[in-house]
Specification:
The chain is an alpha/beta fold. 31% of the residues lie in helices and 24% in strands. Strands 1, 4, 5, 6, 7, 8, 9, 10, 11, 12 and 13 form an eleven-stranded mixed β-sheet that branches. Helix 3 crosses helix 5 and helix 6 crosses helix 11. The protein is globular, with a radius of gyration of 19 Å. Keywords: Transferase. This is Beta-ketoacyl synthase-like N-terminal domain-containing protein. One of its GO terms (biological process) is fatty acid biosynthetic process.
Length: 334
Amino acid sequence: MSDEPMARTAVVVTGAGLAIRGLTGPGDLLGSSVDGTGFDPETELRGRDLRHKDRATRLALRSVEPALRDAGLLGAGGPVLDGTRSAVVVSSNTGNYDSVCAYVDIAARQTSRAVSAVGLPHTSTSAIAGWIAAGHGLHGPAVTLCNGATSGLDALHWGRNLIAADRADTVVVTGVEPDNDVVHKLLGTRTLDGAATIVLESATHAADRGGRVRARWHGLHRGRDHDEVLRTASGSLAPDIGLWLTGARETRPAHLGTSVRQVDLADALGECGGALGVVQCAAVVAHFDAGGGGVALATASAAGVSAALTLLPPGHHPHFPGRVVRASQMTRAT
């Protein structure tokens, strides 16, 4: 196989940004604090650009800007990229529940004529992705996933697939979960109330513009049996795994050595829902930025489904530019 098609489909991470209370950036996820004031939603979720937008959209927008800046794609006049070759993927399980419930309540108490046309677009599941695309001039595909515990990892995979299918050179992947009374009543617990954004690019595009690679995509693995998914995801990489980001308290499998650092971000952040996988990817960026070695493994699971993402260090040139593997049946993504 020649290097040219492999380089074309290889996908890299070039930027990460957060909008999570008290955190200044991805480094804080792993305890590597940086100078600066942590994100304060009380003051930073204001402004003319955020008027008439629900909380999830405002959080998402506030995480996109630092991610684009981190990737070197944000100039003084806005994003510095080809909007026609830039896409958006959003993951959120509860993103606009408050807007939907508010409009249903108004219609139930009065009539549908009482519903304001100004806020009606917020009842669409694609509202967050639409506002990100419109706000930053991203004219490529805009996709929204509401896929439970694995949604964030799935969103990253969809972003990778858009690049591999030549639909985009750059993909902004955002995971967001708001915390409000509607969500609390539905889930019975408080959630993240924050957002994370990852910038994915084709390796060729990043190299051509001189972008800094923060991590390299290796593969996403999905299946019903969590232990089997972990074994398949690790594969021959198991001895090289240095960081394991889990979705819940998980028992370390025998094939992962005791030297692997295991981190459950939900311990510190609370229920992350559809944002989990994207937050985990931001933590991987922080890990590699701080000189952390080895392969990074991120996992998420719920009843009947599990997903595992493997990311390689920036300097690693994988033999496999990107793939999706189901634990019960290994298939190469097209």
